[in-house]
Amino acid sequence: MTDEWTLKTKAMDIKTVNTDLSKETCPVDNEQSVKLEKTAIKIQSWWRGNMVRRTLLDAALGAWAIQCWWRSVQTKIVEQKRRLALKLYTCQEWAVVKVQAYVRMWQARRRFLQARQAACIIQTHWRWHASQSQGMIHSRYEVKASRLELDIEILVT
Asked: Which PANTHER family match (predicted)?
């Protein structure tokens, strides 16, 4: 019933109302025809308003769906950029930590070698002094970069 009514109201406009009224055999007074014309205009404007609102609603829903999709795509892109920046930052930090560790290791090794060389020199001087005061063992120590050369002479008196 509503489909029939909508088809009739779609097809009905001012011209068809005027021609239908003029074809009638029964004379209709002018006041009644104006009333029918105004009613037809109201029905047509109501129907067109509904159609426009429905079309606008469909367009708005479509735009909303596209906007939601676009925002999700942008969020994913931003998240990927953030993760890439974090990964790059982490790699740089690890590289800095490794360089610092190697420098500290080199410094500690250098201090150790200096301390070892100083200890060898002190021991050499001490042993030379001790042997001079006792007169029993004569030896000569020589410290080179990473090893110790030792010559010992034992004198028996």
From this structure: IQ DOMAIN-CONTAINING PROTEIN F6, IQ MOTIF CONTAINING F
